[in-house]
Specification:
Elements: E1 2-4, E2 8-10, H1 14-22, H2 27-30, E3 35-42, E4 45-50, E5 56-64, E6 68-73, E7 80-90, E8 93-102, H3 106-125
Antiparallel strand pairs: 1-8, 2-8, 3-4, 4-5, 5-6, 6-7, 7-8
Length: 130
């Protein structure tokens, strides 16, 4: 299953955006208002839960300085990645595109597509807080 949300322009340099996204404690700033729990587990891992949803543990899986940040599920039960592609548009303007990639059966994909899309749209909207 692949989900992409519209790219978001941010009034920061690509380096600032990359530094923000690779410091996982900053993801609390990007979370939706209906967050029930946010906990940093270590330098590369955090756990969060939204009201009415199970807890999700994300781990920083890959970094390409000033270009890409990949977070992935810490568990292999539901393998997925959340990728932030960072593109410098100028010294103080950057475009961030979020994409989700996961392997789910058809029933699971149908159930989670809408909540994941909404979650990613919120993350993207909240990029203004960087």
């Amino acid at each position: 299953m692949h989900i992409e949300v519209p790219k978001k322009k941010v009034a920061k340099s690509a380096k600032d955006v990359f530094d923000f996204l690779t410091d996982i404690k900053n993801f609390e700033t990007l979370m939706p208002e209906n967050i029930d729990k946010f906990e940093v587990l270590d330098d590369t891992t955090f756990r969060f839960a939204l009201k009415g949803m199970p807890e999700i543990v994300l781990r920083l899986k890959e970094q390409l300085p000033h270009e890409k940040v990949v977070l992935g599920a810490a568990s292999d039960k539901l393998p997925f990645t959340l990728t932030g592609n960072i593109e410098a548009l100028g010294a103080n303007e950057t475009e961030v595109g979020l994409s989700f990639e996961g392997e789910f059966n058809a029933m699971m994909a149908m159930m989670i597509k809408s909540p994941i899309t909404n979650f990613m749209e919120t993350l993207s909207t909240n990029m203004d807080k960087i």
